[in-house]
Amino acid sequence: MIKQQLLNRIADKSAVIGIVGLGYVGLPLMLRFAEVGYKVLGFDIDQSKVDALMAGQSYIEHISADSIATALSRGFEATTDFSRVPEADTLILCVPTPLNKYREPDLSFVLDTMDSLVPHLREGQLVSLESTTYPGTTDEELLPRMESRGLKVGENAFLVFSPEREDPGNPNFTTRTIPKVCGGVTPACQEIGVALYGAVIDKVVPVSSTRAAEMTKLLENIHRAVNIGLVNEMKIVADKMGIDIHEVIRAAATKPFGFVPYYPGPGLGGHCIPIDPFYLTWKAREYGVNTRFIELAGEVNSNMPDYVVSKVAAALNLRKKAINGSRVLVLGIAYKKNVDDMRESPSVFLMEKLRDLGAEVAYSDPHVPVFPKMREHHFELSSVALSAENLAGYDCVLLATDHDKFDYAQIKAHAQLVVDSRGKYLEPADHIVKA
Question: What is the pLDDT of residue 44?
Protein backbone atom coordinates (compact mmCIF):
# COMPACT_ATOMS: atom_id res chain seq x y z
CA MET A 1 0.00 0.00 0.00
CA ILE A 2 1.52 3.31 -1.14
CA LYS A 3 0.40 5.30 1.91
CA GLN A 4 1.91 2.79 4.34
CA GLN A 5 5.17 2.64 2.40
CA LEU A 6 5.58 6.41 2.66
CA LEU A 7 4.65 6.38 6.37
CA ASN A 8 7.28 3.68 6.93
CA ARG A 9 9.93 5.70 5.09
CA ILE A 10 9.13 8.76 7.20
CA ALA A 11 9.22 6.68 10.39
CA ASP A 12 12.58 5.03 9.67
CA LYS A 13 14.05 8.28 8.27
CA SER A 14 14.81 6.77 4.86
CA ALA A 15 12.49 9.30 3.20
CA VAL A 16 14.24 12.02 1.18
CA ILE A 17 12.85 15.43 2.09
CA GLY A 18 12.58 17.87 -0.82
CA ILE A 19 12.31 21.55 0.11
CA VAL A 20 11.49 24.00 -2.67
CA GLY A 21 12.55 27.59 -1.91
CA LEU A 22 15.58 28.06 0.35
CA GLY A 23 14.83 31.39 2.01
CA TYR A 24 13.74 32.50 5.49
CA VAL A 25 11.25 29.59 5.73
CA GLY A 26 12.84 26.80 3.69
CA LEU A 27 16.35 27.05 5.11
CA PRO A 28 15.46 26.63 8.83
CA LEU A 29 13.17 23.73 7.86
CA MET A 30 16.01 22.10 5.93
CA LEU A 31 18.30 22.40 8.97
CA ARG A 32 15.71 20.80 11.22
CA PHE A 33 15.10 17.80 8.94
CA ALA A 34 18.85 17.33 8.50
CA GLU A 35 19.38 17.61 12.26
CA VAL A 36 17.13 14.62 13.01
CA GLY A 37 18.71 12.45 10.34
CA TYR A 38 16.85 12.89 7.05
CA LYS A 39 18.56 13.41 3.72
CA VAL A 40 17.33 16.77 2.42
CA LEU A 41 17.34 17.86 -1.21
CA GLY A 42 16.84 21.61 -1.55
CA PHE A 43 15.54 23.22 -4.74
CA ASP A 44 15.85 26.89 -5.64
CA ILE A 45 15.77 28.82 -8.92
CA ASP A 46 18.54 31.16 -7.68
CA GLN A 47 21.88 29.63 -8.71
CA SER A 48 23.81 32.00 -6.42
CA LYS A 49 21.91 30.69 -3.37
CA VAL A 50 22.57 27.09 -4.38
CA ASP A 51 26.27 27.83 -4.94
CA ALA A 52 26.55 29.55 -1.55
CA LEU A 53 24.89 26.65 0.28
CA MET A 54 27.00 24.01 -1.48
CA ALA A 55 30.09 26.02 -0.43
CA GLY A 56 28.88 25.94 3.18
CA GLN A 57 27.91 29.61 3.25
CA SER A 58 24.75 31.27 4.62
CA TYR A 59 23.01 34.34 3.19
CA ILE A 60 20.68 34.83 6.18
CA GLU A 61 22.19 36.54 9.22
CA HIS A 62 20.65 34.40 11.97
CA ILE A 63 21.59 31.12 10.21
CA SER A 64 25.27 30.32 10.69
CA ALA A 65 27.66 28.97 8.07
CA ASP A 66 28.53 26.23 10.58
CA SER A 67 24.93 24.98 10.57
CA ILE A 68 24.97 24.82 6.75
CA ALA A 69 28.28 22.92 6.83
CA THR A 70 26.85 20.46 9.36
CA ALA A 71 23.79 19.87 7.15
CA LEU A 72 26.08 19.23 4.15
CA SER A 73 28.00 16.68 6.17
CA ARG A 74 24.68 14.95 6.85
CA GLY A 75 23.90 14.64 3.15
CA PHE A 76 22.10 17.90 2.38
CA GLU A 77 22.27 18.97 -1.27
CA ALA A 78 20.97 22.10 -2.99
CA THR A 79 20.17 22.22 -6.69
CA THR A 80 18.42 24.22 -9.42
CA ASP A 81 17.72 21.00 -11.33
CA PHE A 82 14.00 20.17 -11.03
CA SER A 83 14.49 16.91 -12.94
CA ARG A 84 15.75 15.55 -9.60
CA VAL A 85 12.25 15.92 -8.08
CA PRO A 86 11.56 12.12 -8.33
CA GLU A 87 14.39 11.53 -5.82
CA ALA A 88 12.31 13.23 -3.10
CA ASP A 89 9.53 11.50 -1.16
CA THR A 90 8.10 14.79 0.10
CA LEU A 91 8.11 18.20 -1.56
CA ILE A 92 7.62 21.14 0.79
CA LEU A 93 6.94 24.43 -1.02
CA CYS A 94 8.34 27.51 0.75
CA VAL A 95 8.06 30.25 -1.89
CA PRO A 96 6.86 33.88 -1.62
CA THR A 97 3.23 34.96 -2.00
CA PRO A 98 3.42 38.76 -2.46
CA LEU A 99 0.80 41.21 -3.73
CA ASN A 100 0.77 42.69 -7.21
CA LYS A 101 0.63 46.43 -7.88
CA TYR A 102 -3.17 46.35 -7.53
CA ARG A 103 -2.84 44.90 -3.98
CA GLU A 104 -4.19 41.57 -5.21
CA PRO A 105 -2.69 38.10 -4.45
CA ASP A 106 0.24 37.20 -6.67
CA LEU A 107 0.37 33.40 -6.78
CA SER A 108 2.87 33.35 -9.64
CA PHE A 109 5.71 31.99 -7.45
CA VAL A 110 3.53 29.15 -6.13
CA LEU A 111 1.99 28.28 -9.50
CA ASP A 112 5.25 28.57 -11.47
CA THR A 113 6.95 26.36 -8.90
CA MET A 114 4.15 23.81 -9.06
CA ASP A 115 4.23 23.84 -12.86
CA SER A 116 7.98 23.14 -12.68
CA LEU A 117 7.37 20.19 -10.34
CA VAL A 118 4.39 18.59 -12.10
CA PRO A 119 6.27 16.97 -15.04
CA HIS A 120 8.54 15.22 -12.52
CA LEU A 121 5.98 14.10 -9.89
CA ARG A 122 5.63 10.38 -9.26
CA GLU A 123 3.46 8.04 -7.23
CA GLY A 124 4.10 7.94 -3.49
CA GLN A 125 5.04 11.60 -3.01
CA LEU A 126 3.60 14.12 -0.56
CA VAL A 127 3.35 17.77 -1.62
CA SER A 128 3.02 20.31 1.21
CA LEU A 129 2.40 24.02 0.61
CA GLU A 130 3.69 26.32 3.37
CA SER A 131 3.26 29.69 1.60
CA THR A 132 0.55 31.92 3.08
CA THR A 133 -2.42 32.20 0.77
CA TYR A 134 -6.21 32.52 0.55
CA PRO A 135 -8.52 29.63 1.54
CA GLY A 136 -9.01 27.37 -1.46
CA THR A 137 -5.58 27.72 -3.07
CA THR A 138 -4.43 24.17 -2.29
CA ASP A 139 -7.54 22.41 -3.59
CA GLU A 140 -8.34 24.88 -6.40
CA GLU A 141 -4.83 25.34 -7.81
CA LEU A 142 -2.47 22.59 -6.62
CA LEU A 143 -4.84 19.62 -6.59
CA PRO A 144 -5.84 19.87 -10.31
CA ARG A 145 -2.17 20.29 -11.28
CA MET A 146 -1.20 17.12 -9.43
CA GLU A 147 -4.10 15.18 -10.90
CA SER A 148 -3.22 16.43 -14.42
CA ARG A 149 -0.17 14.19 -14.02
CA GLY A 150 -2.52 11.19 -13.66
CA LEU A 151 -2.04 10.95 -9.89
CA LYS A 152 -4.94 10.16 -7.55
CA VAL A 153 -4.50 12.47 -4.55
CA GLY A 154 -5.32 10.58 -1.36
CA GLU A 155 -4.55 7.21 -2.96
CA ASN A 156 -1.16 7.22 -4.68
CA ALA A 157 -0.07 10.82 -4.00
CA PHE A 158 -0.75 13.18 -1.14
CA LEU A 159 -1.33 16.92 -0.65
CA VAL A 160 -1.45 19.09 2.49
CA PHE A 161 -1.31 22.74 3.51
CA SER A 162 0.84 23.52 6.56
CA PRO A 163 1.53 27.24 7.01
CA GLU A 164 4.97 28.45 8.03
CA ARG A 165 5.27 30.13 11.42
CA GLU A 166 8.87 31.35 11.39
CA ASP A 167 9.76 34.32 13.61
CA PRO A 168 13.30 35.38 12.61
CA GLY A 169 15.33 36.90 15.40
CA ASN A 170 13.12 35.53 18.19
CA PRO A 171 15.42 33.54 20.49
CA ASN A 172 12.51 32.04 22.43
CA PHE A 173 11.17 29.90 19.59
CA THR A 174 12.75 27.58 17.04
CA THR A 175 11.38 25.64 14.08
CA ARG A 176 11.10 22.65 16.40
CA THR A 177 9.18 24.37 19.22
CA ILE A 178 6.62 26.36 17.22
CA PRO A 179 3.46 24.18 16.90
CA LYS A 180 2.64 23.26 13.27
CA VAL A 181 -0.87 23.42 11.84
CA CYS A 182 -1.59 20.87 9.09
CA GLY A 183 -4.66 20.24 6.93
CA GLY A 184 -4.94 17.53 4.27
CA VAL A 185 -7.04 17.20 1.12
CA THR A 186 -8.11 13.73 2.36
CA PRO A 187 -7.70 11.85 5.68
CA ALA A 188 -4.84 9.84 4.14
CA CYS A 189 -3.09 13.08 3.12
CA GLN A 190 -3.61 14.42 6.63
CA GLU A 191 -2.14 11.28 8.22
CA ILE A 192 1.05 11.55 6.18
CA GLY A 193 1.39 15.31 6.70
CA VAL A 194 1.06 14.90 10.48
CA ALA A 195 3.61 12.06 10.44
CA LEU A 196 6.08 14.11 8.40
CA TYR A 197 5.96 17.23 10.57
CA GLY A 198 5.61 15.22 13.77
CA ALA A 199 9.04 13.74 13.06
CA VAL A 200 10.72 17.14 13.44
CA ILE A 201 8.31 19.42 15.34
CA ASP A 202 7.24 18.97 18.96
CA LYS A 203 3.53 19.60 18.42
CA VAL A 204 1.47 19.20 15.26
CA VAL A 205 -2.07 20.64 15.23
CA PRO A 206 -4.31 18.81 12.74
CA VAL A 207 -7.26 20.69 11.23
CA SER A 208 -10.11 19.30 9.13
CA SER A 209 -9.10 20.61 5.70
CA THR A 210 -6.53 22.56 3.72
CA ARG A 211 -8.96 25.52 3.72
CA ALA A 212 -9.13 25.53 7.52
CA ALA A 213 -5.32 25.50 7.65
CA GLU A 214 -5.12 28.35 5.12
CA MET A 215 -7.65 30.39 7.10
CA THR A 216 -5.78 29.69 10.37
CA LYS A 217 -2.63 31.36 9.06
CA LEU A 218 -4.60 34.35 7.79
CA LEU A 219 -6.39 34.76 11.14
CA GLU A 220 -3.05 34.77 13.00
CA ASN A 221 -1.67 37.55 10.82
CA ILE A 222 -4.89 39.54 10.51
CA HIS A 223 -5.21 39.47 14.31
CA ARG A 224 -1.84 41.19 14.53
CA ALA A 225 -2.53 43.62 11.68
CA VAL A 226 -5.86 44.76 13.16
CA ASN A 227 -4.46 45.19 16.67
CA ILE A 228 -1.41 47.07 15.40
CA GLY A 229 -3.76 49.26 13.34
CA LEU A 230 -5.78 49.97 16.49
CA VAL A 231 -2.74 50.92 18.55
CA ASN A 232 -1.31 53.04 15.70
CA GLU A 233 -4.59 54.97 15.61
CA MET A 234 -4.51 55.30 19.41
CA LYS A 235 -0.96 56.67 19.13
CA ILE A 236 -2.13 59.50 16.87
CA VAL A 237 -5.00 60.39 19.24
CA ALA A 238 -2.76 60.20 22.31
CA ASP A 239 -0.14 62.39 20.64
CA LYS A 240 -2.74 65.08 19.93
CA MET A 241 -3.72 64.96 23.61
CA GLY A 242 -0.12 65.17 24.82
CA ILE A 243 -0.18 61.61 26.18
CA ASP A 244 2.65 59.08 25.69
CA ILE A 245 0.98 55.99 24.19
CA HIS A 246 3.91 53.78 25.23
CA GLU A 247 3.39 54.74 28.88
CA VAL A 248 -0.30 53.90 28.47
CA ILE A 249 0.44 50.50 26.87
CA ARG A 250 2.89 49.59 29.63
CA ALA A 251 0.30 50.51 32.26
CA ALA A 252 -2.50 48.59 30.49
CA ALA A 253 -0.24 45.54 30.13
CA THR A 254 -0.15 45.16 33.93
CA LYS A 255 -3.73 43.87 33.70
CA PRO A 256 -3.30 40.10 34.05
CA PHE A 257 -6.30 39.17 31.88
CA GLY A 258 -8.17 40.43 28.85
CA PHE A 259 -5.41 42.63 27.43
CA VAL A 260 -2.57 41.78 25.05
CA PRO A 261 -0.03 44.57 24.45
CA TYR A 262 0.64 45.60 20.85
CA TYR A 263 3.07 48.38 20.05
CA PRO A 264 2.80 51.16 17.47
CA GLY A 265 5.48 51.87 14.91
CA PRO A 266 6.22 53.59 11.61
CA GLY A 267 4.15 51.06 9.62
CA LEU A 268 3.98 47.33 9.09
CA GLY A 269 6.83 45.23 7.74
CA GLY A 270 7.82 41.69 6.94
CA HIS A 271 6.45 39.25 4.42
CA CYS A 272 3.30 38.41 6.41
CA ILE A 273 1.51 41.14 8.32
CA PRO A 274 1.33 43.87 5.60
CA ILE A 275 0.38 41.38 2.87
CA ASP A 276 -1.62 38.42 4.14
CA PRO A 277 -4.81 40.29 5.17
CA PHE A 278 -5.32 41.29 1.54
CA TYR A 279 -5.40 37.63 0.53
CA LEU A 280 -8.58 37.21 2.57
CA THR A 281 -10.20 40.51 1.56
CA TRP A 282 -9.67 39.54 -2.09
CA LYS A 283 -11.12 36.05 -1.68
CA ALA A 284 -14.01 37.29 0.47
CA ARG A 285 -15.31 39.35 -2.47
CA GLU A 286 -16.06 36.09 -4.28
CA TYR A 287 -18.56 35.39 -1.47
CA GLY A 288 -20.03 38.92 -1.47
CA VAL A 289 -18.44 39.83 1.87
CA ASN A 290 -16.79 43.19 2.63
CA THR A 291 -14.01 42.81 5.18
CA ARG A 292 -14.22 46.33 6.59
CA PHE A 293 -12.25 45.76 9.80
CA ILE A 294 -9.32 44.27 7.91
CA GLU A 295 -9.30 46.95 5.22
CA LEU A 296 -9.54 49.77 7.79
CA ALA A 297 -6.57 48.37 9.70
CA GLY A 298 -4.65 48.14 6.41
CA GLU A 299 -5.48 51.77 5.66
CA VAL A 300 -4.34 52.97 9.11
CA ASN A 301 -1.11 50.97 8.98
CA SER A 302 -0.20 51.97 5.42
CA ASN A 303 -0.65 55.64 6.38
CA MET A 304 1.84 55.45 9.26
CA PRO A 305 4.96 56.31 7.20
CA ASP A 306 3.21 59.55 6.12
CA TYR A 307 2.44 60.31 9.77
CA VAL A 308 6.07 59.77 10.79
CA VAL A 309 7.33 61.96 7.91
CA SER A 310 4.91 64.70 9.01
CA LYS A 311 6.43 64.53 12.50
CA VAL A 312 9.93 64.84 10.99
CA ALA A 313 8.78 67.86 8.98
CA ALA A 314 7.20 69.51 12.02
CA ALA A 315 10.27 68.87 14.20
CA LEU A 316 12.63 70.33 11.59
CA ASN A 317 10.26 73.24 11.04
CA LEU A 318 10.46 74.16 14.75
CA ARG A 319 14.21 74.41 14.22
CA LYS A 320 13.68 76.69 11.20
CA LYS A 321 14.67 73.95 8.74
CA ALA A 322 12.87 72.34 5.82
CA ILE A 323 13.00 68.64 4.90
CA ASN A 324 14.27 69.80 1.52
CA GLY A 325 18.04 69.98 1.91
CA SER A 326 18.15 68.46 5.41
CA ARG A 327 20.45 65.55 6.17
CA VAL A 328 18.37 62.72 7.67
CA LEU A 329 19.84 59.54 9.13
CA VAL A 330 17.41 56.62 9.33
CA LEU A 331 18.29 54.18 12.12
CA GLY A 332 17.32 50.60 11.29
CA ILE A 333 16.06 49.55 7.85
CA ALA A 334 15.17 45.89 8.54
CA TYR A 335 11.43 45.41 9.06
CA LYS A 336 11.86 44.54 12.75
CA LYS A 337 14.56 44.61 15.42
CA ASN A 338 17.60 42.31 15.43
CA VAL A 339 17.15 40.77 11.94
CA ASP A 340 18.46 41.46 8.44
CA ASP A 341 15.08 40.88 6.74
CA MET A 342 14.12 43.86 4.55
CA ARG A 343 10.82 42.57 3.14
CA GLU A 344 8.10 45.26 3.15
CA SER A 345 10.14 47.29 5.64
CA PRO A 346 8.41 50.58 6.55
CA SER A 347 11.88 52.13 6.88
CA VAL A 348 12.31 51.88 3.11
CA PHE A 349 9.02 53.70 2.51
CA LEU A 350 10.16 56.39 4.98
CA MET A 351 13.46 56.77 3.12
CA GLU A 352 11.68 57.11 -0.22
CA LYS A 353 9.21 59.67 1.08
CA LEU A 354 12.00 61.73 2.65
CA ARG A 355 14.08 61.53 -0.52
CA ASP A 356 11.08 62.61 -2.62
CA LEU A 357 10.72 65.66 -0.36
CA GLY A 358 14.33 66.63 -1.00
CA ALA A 359 16.08 65.23 2.05
CA GLU A 360 19.61 63.89 1.82
CA VAL A 361 18.95 60.40 3.22
CA ALA A 362 21.44 58.01 4.83
CA TYR A 363 20.94 54.97 7.04
CA SER A 364 22.62 53.01 9.79
CA ASP A 365 21.81 49.35 10.38
CA PRO A 366 24.27 46.88 11.93
CA HIS A 367 22.33 43.99 10.34
CA VAL A 368 22.26 45.41 6.78
CA PRO A 369 25.74 46.67 5.80
CA VAL A 370 24.76 47.49 2.18
CA PHE A 371 21.30 48.44 0.95
CA PRO A 372 20.19 45.30 -0.94
CA LYS A 373 18.91 45.12 -4.48
CA MET A 374 15.09 45.13 -4.23
CA ARG A 375 12.46 44.78 -6.92
CA GLU A 376 10.77 48.12 -6.24
CA HIS A 377 13.18 50.15 -4.09
CA HIS A 378 16.53 51.54 -5.17
CA PHE A 379 19.17 53.15 -2.98
CA GLU A 380 22.93 53.12 -3.59
CA LEU A 381 23.83 53.31 0.08
CA SER A 382 25.90 51.58 2.74
CA SER A 383 25.32 51.63 6.48
CA VAL A 384 26.82 54.64 8.28
CA ALA A 385 28.87 53.83 11.38
CA LEU A 386 27.50 55.59 14.45
CA SER A 387 29.91 57.91 16.19
CA ALA A 388 29.52 61.15 18.13
CA GLU A 389 30.80 63.11 15.14
CA ASN A 390 28.60 61.31 12.58
CA LEU A 391 25.45 61.68 14.66
CA ALA A 392 26.03 65.39 15.21
CA GLY A 393 26.40 65.91 11.45
CA TYR A 394 22.74 65.12 10.67
CA ASP A 395 19.87 67.56 10.96
CA CYS A 396 17.60 64.72 12.07
CA VAL A 397 18.08 61.14 13.26
CA LEU A 398 14.95 59.07 12.65
CA LEU A 399 14.65 55.91 14.77
CA ALA A 400 12.73 53.52 12.52
CA THR A 401 13.78 50.04 13.74
CA ASP A 402 14.94 49.66 17.33
CA HIS A 403 17.81 47.16 17.06
CA ASP A 404 19.40 46.18 20.37
CA LYS A 405 22.86 46.85 18.89
CA PHE A 406 22.26 50.62 18.76
CA ASP A 407 23.83 52.69 21.57
CA TYR A 408 20.77 54.72 22.52
CA ALA A 409 22.61 56.82 25.11
CA GLN A 410 25.18 57.83 22.48
CA ILE A 411 22.41 58.70 20.00
CA LYS A 412 20.60 60.82 22.57
CA ALA A 413 23.81 62.58 23.65
CA HIS A 414 25.07 63.59 20.19
CA ALA A 415 22.13 63.84 17.75
CA GLN A 416 20.81 67.35 17.11
CA LEU A 417 17.26 66.00 16.76
CA VAL A 418 15.84 62.50 17.31
CA VAL A 419 12.44 61.49 15.94
CA ASP A 420 11.52 58.29 17.80
CA SER A 421 8.90 56.14 16.05
CA ARG A 422 9.42 53.16 18.38
CA GLY A 423 8.93 54.63 21.85
CA LYS A 424 12.51 53.84 22.83
CA TYR A 425 13.14 57.05 24.78
CA LEU A 426 11.01 57.14 27.91
CA GLU A 427 12.30 60.37 29.44
CA PRO A 428 11.23 63.57 27.66
CA ALA A 429 13.97 65.78 26.18
CA ASP A 430 13.84 68.96 24.10
CA HIS A 431 15.54 67.35 21.11
CA ILE A 432 13.54 64.07 21.16
CA VAL A 433 10.21 63.97 19.35
CA LYS A 434 7.87 60.99 19.59
CA ALA A 435 6.37 59.86 16.28
Answer: 97
Taking alpha carbons only, the member of 339, 334, 366 closest to residue 351 is 334
Q: Which residues, at least 6 apart from 403, have a Cβ–Cβ distance to it below 8 Å?
A: 331, 332, 334, 337, 338, 365, 366, 367
Closest CA to 114 of 104, 103, 124, 125: 125
Q: What is the CATH number of domain 209-302?
A: 3.40.50.720
pLDDT at 358: 98
Predicted confidence at residue 269, as pLDDT, reads 80
Ranges of the chain with pLDDT below 50: none
Going by C-alpha positions, the residue among 245, 224, 227, 243 that lies closest to residue 235 is 245
Nearest to 415, CA basis, from 381, 389, 382, 435: 389
Task: List the domain boundaries for the chain.
Answer: 2-207, 209-302, 304-435
Instruction: Kindly state which CATH superfamily the domain 2-207 is placed in.
Output: NAD(P)-binding Rossmann-like Domain (3.40.50.720)
Active site residues: 272
For residue 172, what pLDDT is reported?
A: 87
